[in-house]
From TrEMBL, chain B:
This is Glutamyl-tRNA(Gln) amidotransferase (Subunit C). Its EC number is 6.3.5.7. The keyword Zinc does not apply. It is an enzyme of class 6 (ligase). GO terms for biological process: glutaminyl-tRNAGln biosynthesis via transamidation; regulation of translational fidelity.
Length: 483, 93
């Protein structure tokens, strides 16, 4: 049996979060009553003139620079002609032979190996309207169209055929999402369709230079769908070739429910778009100074930030990777560390208790009630011995629920740690008197009995006793009486 | 050289239904037009940039502001068929 190598390239569409559409002043806001975010330009009425939104060009350059692309000095828009009611004009304004940027790359980590994935091109285009079917597109008696989304700005980012497995494709997509989010040009919400993906996939015998016949998979609307659809397609294509068959070059759609890819009838997707320069729009000569201004305004990007966390803060690669996986998380971390300069302690709380509470409550970090300065002061309260680590966890949960300052919670609930030796000693004596058996066990060499006794002291003091002091005083007392 | 198959293909892409006679006529006419343009092919354009636009304009931009939307009834006024607030179109595939 032949061993095959998988070859995947991704086309990712990212909606840019400008206020208005790419060629008119209608809003880009998601949702809204059907056909209310429209005007004569995005409805393609006769006699209108589209004009490029300058911020779209700026955002496209911003995203392209973050992906190490070269920016074109000369760029233009073209019409992509096709009959399909998702565009009212019967063409989509896109870029064909002179895209705004290309020749970039991004690095992905797969199995502790860095793989450089080429970005072939990045171009601007308008999004299409939304079609609503009853059931599926093939069974519906008619379709309904909402043009609110028509004309929302997109960049399409095309990778080279450099990905070698469904897993690499997923990691690439996640990395791309992280980088774009850092640049601030898109929310990248897959569930709202502001990040979408099509995949080209083929297989070839290992060692072959020449690519096999590819299929294009559409409708990959989550990281999971991307991974599953590509895994399915590898199996399917391998099966066809092993039986002596041939792969048909075609467009297929991912059926999430059945877990299979299915061919779309090729006639409607004929790749015969008859591109030509849009005579309504004039060419763009991109000023290199503008590009440099944009480059200077880019934030520190995930790879550089991760590296810095390892160098500057001495964090393990794992911590650094997670903390820099979103800009919000990294900003939170740094803000906290500037107030409480113990990076590892902050990292532990963020990756532990904070992410646990966020996940359990389904809360985004941006909506989290705990502010970085508050986490810092909680850690200070622990350092100063005002509260124990155990109490800190309780306080943290209260902070998460109410957004109150840790100091106020400690005062309100009377959670200040008892570090007064004589007060703890009184409780220790009381506990020993009530538990003579455990005391005897410990003296007989059963170390485990100590744990029980510590627990009793903590229970009596409602967790407020300084644990180290409890431990020390208990041992002292037990050993004293042994003599 | 434009063939009859080319005409049929282009007609399909443009969703035009042509009679046999029309296919005949358009094949001949399109070839006449292409023949006319062939005169231009004789010019040496080696040092000329491809034309992206016929007017000497560049960098025409608008600022990113939201303006007035069209009243929905106006937007839907000319559509052949509607369903509530949607445009209604025949089965696509």
């Amino acid at each position: 049996m032949t061993n095959y190598e998988t070859v995947i390239g991704l086309e990712v569409h990212v909606e840019l979060k400008t206020r208005s559409k790419i060629f008119c002043d209608s809003t880009t806001e998601f949702g809204g009553e059907p056909n209310t975010h429209v005007c004569p330009v995005c409805l393609g009425l006769p006699g209108v003139l589209p004009v490029v939104n300058k911020t779209v060009v700026e955002y496209a350059i911003r995203a392209a620079l973050a992906l190490n692309c070269q920016i074109a000095g000369f760029s233009k828009f073209d019409r992509k002609n096709y009959y399909y009611p998702d565009m009212p004009k019967n063409y989509q304004i896109s870029q064909y032979d002179l895209p705004i940027a290309g020749h970039g790359y991004l690095d992905i980590d797969v199995n502790n190996e860095v793989r450089r994935i080429g970005i072939t091109r990045l171009h601007m285009e308008e999004d299409t309207g939304k079609l609503v079917h009853q059931g599926t597109i093939t069974t519906t008696p008619y379709s309904l169209v909402d043009y609110n989304r028509a004309g929302v700005p997109l960049v399409e980012i095309v990778s080279g055929p450099d990905l070698r497995s469904p897993e690499e494709a997923r990691v690439y997509m996640e990395k791309l999402k992280t980088i774009i989010q850092y640049t601030g040009v898109s929310d990248c919400k897959m569930e709202e369709g502001s990040l979408r993906c099509d995949a080209n996939i083929s297989i070839r015998p290992v060692g072959n230079e020449q690519f096999g016949t590819k299929t294009e998979i559409k409708n990959l609307n989550s990281f999971k769908a991307l991974y599953r659809a590509l895994s399915y397609e590898v199996e399917r294509q391998t099966g066809v070739l092993n039986k002596g068959g041939r792969i048909v070059q075609e467009t297929r759609t991912w059926d999430e429910r059945e877990g299979v890819t299915l061919p779309l009838r090729s006639k409607e997707y004929a790749h015969d778009y008859r591109y030509f320069p849009d005579p309504d729009l004039v060419p763009m000569i991109i000023d290199p100074e503008w590009v440099e201004d944009i480059r200077r305004s880019l934030p520190e990007l995930p790879d550089a930030r991760r590296e810095r966390y390892m160098q500057e803060y001495g964090l393990p690669g794992y911590d650094a990777g997670i903390l820099t996986s979103t800009k919000e998380l990294a900003d939170f971390f740094e803000s906290c560390v500037s107030a409480y300069p113990n990076p590892k302690a902050v990292s532990n709380w963020m990756m532990g208790d904070l992410s646990r509470l966020l996940n359990a409550g389904g809360v985004e970090l941006t909506a989290c009630k705990i502010k970085p300065a508050q986490l810092a002061s909680l850690l200070q309260l622990m350092d100063e011995g005002i509260i124990s680590g155990r109490i800190a966890k309780t306080v943290f949960e209260e902070m998460f629920a109410s957004g109150k300052d840790p100091g106020d919670i400690v005062k309100e609930k009377g959670l200040v740690q008892i570090s007064d030796k004589s007060a703890i000693m009184a409780v220790v004596e009381d506990v020993l008197a009530k538990n003579p058996k455990s005391a005897a066990d410990f003296r007989a060499g059963k170390e485990r009995a100590l744990g029980f006794l510590v627990g009793q002291v903590m229970k009596t003091t409602r967790g407020k006793a300084n644990p180290e002091l409890v431990d020390k005083l208990l041992k002292e007392k037990l050993l004293q009486e042994k003599l | 050289m434009v063939t009859r198959e080319d005409v049929e293909h282009v007609a399909l892409l443009g969703r035009l239904e042509l009679t046999e006679e029309e296919k005949e006529i358009y094949t001949r006419q399109l070839n006449d037009i292409l023949g006319h343009f062939q005169a231009l092919q004789r010019l040496d354009t080696g040092n000329i940039q491809p034309t992206a636009h016929v007017l000497p304009l560049k960098n025409v931009y608008r600022e990113d502001w939201v303006g007035q939307h069209m009243p929905r009834e106006d937007a839907l006024a000319n559509c052949p068929d509607r369903d509530e607030n949607y445009f209604k179109v025949p089965k696509i595939v």
